[in-house]
Amino acid sequence: MSIRVGFDILENTIKKALINAGLNEDRAALCAGIHTESSADGVESHGANRVPRFVKYVKRGWVNPNGEPELVGKKGLAENYDGNLGPGITNAIFCTDRAIKLADEHGIGLVTIKNTTHWMRGGTYAWRIAESGKIGISWIATESCMPMWGSDEPSVGNNPFCMAVPRENGEIVLDMAMSQYAYGKLGVYRLAGKQLPYPGGFDEAGNLTSDPGEIEKSRRILPAGYWKGSSFALVLDLIASALANGKSGAELDDEKKGSCTGCCQVFIAIDPYLFGDKESIQRKWDYRVQRADSAHPSNIKFSVKSPGEGTMERRKYSMENGINIDEKIWVQIKAIADGDLNIVDIS
Amino acid sequence: MSIRVGFDILENTIKKALINAGLNEDRAALCAGIHTESSADGVESHGANRVPRFVKYVKRGWVNPNGEPELVGKKGLAENYDGNLGPGITNAIFCTDRAIKLADEHGIGLVTIKNTTHWMRGGTYAWRIAESGKIGISWIATESCMPMWGSDEPSVGNNPFCMAVPRENGEIVLDMAMSQYAYGKLGVYRLAGKQLPYPGGFDEAGNLTSDPGEIEKSRRILPAGYWKGSSFALVLDLIASALANGKSGAELDDEKKGSCTGCCQVFIAIDPYLFGDKESIQRKWDYRVQRADSAHPSNIKFSVKSPGEGTMERRKYSMENGINIDEKIWVQIKAIADGDLNIVDIS
């Protein structure tokens, strides 16, 4: 069961929980704000739901609450950092802001980081770049949790890939992972006793299925676009680990630590007005988006939406009605805020 | 029916055909080489098969055989060209080589072009960047030929997106379009009387189907990854048309000209050794690829392959055994080479 909790209450409770986990006040405030925003935007699986797991990783020593990005390389428009296993959010926000700054100076900024930890919602950073007025592109290399196409064992990451456009009438943001459905989404359907809308993986006999529980058992989630998703994931891994000069997914697999612990990330910011004036580019974007959104709907009950538009609607609803949160997760976060760090990760 | 034709014979015949279409000898040689290579790599639909359509577009005035890229903007690592509706291949090769040069100077190079025409196989340019030793990223904005998710009419492009990694033991190249299957592929299955291996679109009643003929009738090809593919396509369109300061897909739709006529393209080259030495990056890539390729296969008869590896096997086979080409297309190309420009596009 889910309940709705006000933004400030959720944010303050997460902040207290993170201070108890060892973050200083500023870092706890930054991370709490981002966890809360992700849940407000409807991405609960990578928002508030991840707080208990984050605390568990800090306790295990897989995340260093005081780790900070350290410059290890700089060439013109490009900078490379060592994340020192600091919190994924504080590291990634730092890199995002550096990419924006480098794009101010050079037209394009490329920032890479190695030895960082889970950045939570991938879209956070591309949204932030777009809100600064730049085009944002970001992705990660991470451990294997999805079979390569043609394989029946986890052999490639389910990497997020994000692209964001700073449209003044509403940012347009692609925030996709390489699997058709995340494991978190499978759990949501299984708990609700529902089948997935479309096949999301293979059962243990190797048949494509929409049954979430069967896919959880086989660990054979389906790459988005079948062969396309796992190919894309591998190439993202190769490029990120090279540009960040850090660990590839295979090297993370060897370490056998949790999700995105010690991973590489890439942040690119580009000035959209390199060759066109702002007014005409914004007009071009409005026209393109309006044409996409006014495409004839296949079901008269639903309108066509460009990526990011649904997120903004959910954000508005959450601000007015409170943020949706699973009751059990909410109990856990309150317990951590009250000083009990012995939680079990149920996300 | 298909036959196999030697590389040199196919290349020389295409070259003669393109000279008859109005290209000068150098440009005809360049384009013929690339059409032939694409067919050799197994991408016939965007290789030799496209020669008759290209000739038709030149005859209509949609492609200017003498159009050349003209510099219209330059800012440090970024350059913007007007393609003057020249041949897509000669324009794109020029931009590719400029992006490589800019990456030599700045670590990263960004080249955009507007008012260009179909670049044929998208992977050509990412492969070329990788073969030069750089990481390549490229994509285009183009006219609508795929429904947005939730729509039943063409409302977004089926844009190619390519990423290439310069691994010395074999380039790893993602060359994907945003639909699950290209229209060309549907035709191949229909002519063979076969169903698609996986659903590839909707029939006219709105049901997901694997019947290629039904999808061709409805024009509702399936975006790869369902909602993911059409979202990705729209964002690629918005970014390419802004950075090239050219026409978006919606503006191309208004013009009602053929495929990719007057479109925008983006070429990015990145030095992979910005922060790591060449030997360790190459070793990292080899290890990652070897781990992916040695994943346990779901069918013992097939091995797992990283993207690009299948292409290289097909290339080798074509060089040894001749290039596969549809007999009817081959008759058409020979007719154009003999001076008959009145061909019908059957591709």
TrEMBL record, chains A, B:
Gene3D superfamilies: 1.10.1530.10, Hypothetical oxidoreductase yiak, domain 2. InterPro entries: Mal/L-sulf/L-lact_DH-like_ah, Mal/L-sulf/L-lact_DH-like_NADP, Mal/L-sulfo/L-lacto_DH-like_sf, Malate/L-lactate_DH-like. GO terms for molecular function: oxidoreductase activity. SUPFAM superfamilies: L-sulfolactate dehydrogenase-like. The keyword Ion transport does not apply. It comes from the Bacteria. Keywords: Oxidoreductase. This is Malate/L-lactate dehydrogenase. It comes from Lachnoanaerobaculum saburreum F0468.
